Amino acid sequence: MIDVSYQGRVAIVRMNYGKANALDVQLCDALAERFKELELSSAQAVVLTGQGRIFSAGVDLLRATRGDPGYLREFLAALCRAFESVFFFPKPLVAAMNGHAIAGGCVLACAADKRLMARDSGHVGVNELLVGVPFPTIALEIMRFATLPPFFPEIVFSGATYTPEDALFRGLIDDVVEPERLIERAVVAAETHAALPPAAFALTKRQIRQPVADRLQNHDGLLDQAARDLWLI
Fold first, then answer.
1. Mean pLDDT throughout 147-167?
2. How far from chain centre, in Å, is Cα 27?
3. What is the pLDDT of residues 52-79, one digit of tens each?
4. Cβ contacts of residue 14 below 8 Å, gap of 6+?
5. What is the pLDDT of residue 37?
6. What stretches of the chain show up as alpha helix (H) in DSSP?
7. What is the pLDDT, as a whole number, of residue 191?
8. SS3 150
9. Does a structural domain hold residue 222?
């Protein structure tokens, strides 16, 4: 489901779950658990990637819309835990986007400190509204944090998916690289951040992301409840 290998002090976390790394309870729980382990490990930085031409196709909608309210509630809680575990991970984290990163897969990539995408590998974007499901608060805040402000409404409301070059223009990714050099370049980017004093990096990252934590803490939960209600319709 999730394979971990090492290049020096960088842990390479590869999602290897089914054909599309579709997000369900099992994968979300595994991501949260793995990142908790890596936080306590000797790894000084992490690269997160997928398999083949798919980083992650997002939520497993077939399973999520099967009509089981119990599973759906469990899944939404697991999804939010996974997003928070990745977004607030204190060590350097680079997303090596080997292919399509759609909906929740895009959010997962945007939770990283830096995002590299392979040229001509696929599309990236959040199409939740096109299929009639709203964003959990943490997902929307991650997208707000990662994208260039002028493009944030377009990215969310249009549901468009973008080529790597168009995604770069909108701030969804930080660089477009040749596919055969994706992991190499991601490891170099991770090592560059890992060369900084770890405690200072972790504190600075926490400070940069604190406004998101504040918004999550201060909202009264009604928005997430409303989102859950719409998912359950």
1. 97
2. 13
3. 999 999 988 777 766 677 888 899 999 9
4. 2, 3, 4, 5, 49, 50, 51
5. 97
6. 25-40, 61-64, 69-87, 104-110, 137-146, 152-158, 164-170, 182-194, 198-218, 222-232
7. 97
8. helix
9. no
Q: Which residues, including other chains, have CB under 8 Å from residue 65's CB and lie 6 or more apart?
A: none
Q: Looking at the domain assignment, is residue 165 inside a domain?
A: yes
Reduce the DSSP state of residue 2 to 3 states and report it: strand
Domain that holds residue 109: 2-181
Determine contact, residues 123/100, Cβ cutoff 8 Å: yes
Using CA atoms, how far apart are residues 156 and 186, in angstroms rounded to an integer? 27
The amino acid occupying position 162 is Y
Asked if 39 and 90 count as a contact pair (C-beta separation under 8 A), the reply is yes
Q: Give pLDDT, residue 233.
A: 66
**pLDDT range class, residue 117, cuts 50, 70, 90:** very high
Beta-bridge partners for 116: 96, 175
- Structurally, the chain folds into a number of domains equal to 1
